[in-house]
Amino acid sequence: MLRLALYQPDIPQNTGTMLRLAACLGVAVEIIEPAGFDVSDRHLRRSGLDYLDHVAITRHRSYAAFDVWRWQAGIRLVLATTRGSVPYTAHAFRDGDCLMVGRESAGVPDAVHADAEARVAIPMREGMRSLNVAVAAGMILGEGLRQLGAV
Prior knowledge:
about 150 residues, alpha/beta, 7 strands, globular
């Protein structure tokens, strides 16, 4: 199945929305710290409501720790980015891929871009900067799961 990685999230409501999304779709979540808010179970429960019991969440203390973990597990990193050259609908998702979304305020650093095996974008109208990170995650995960026959 697919995984969703949240790179240093800074808006708890978006994180809660993505946790609920992951619970409903059966997608595991990787939270890469530091976050812009307290990501303790108590605080995540408030933003994720009663859906947290239905989603596997792993917290990584840093991007470096996440990167070591994913390499050891053989997980391919697919980055959702406005700088992506491939539309998300043209990307061939594989079982086990990890879709990463960046910070709402800043995306991800160039080093993370360089580490990603794939960079996908959501085509948008000229002049529009970006979608809400939770909306983007939902669109891309939906396509990945469709391709894998999971929905």
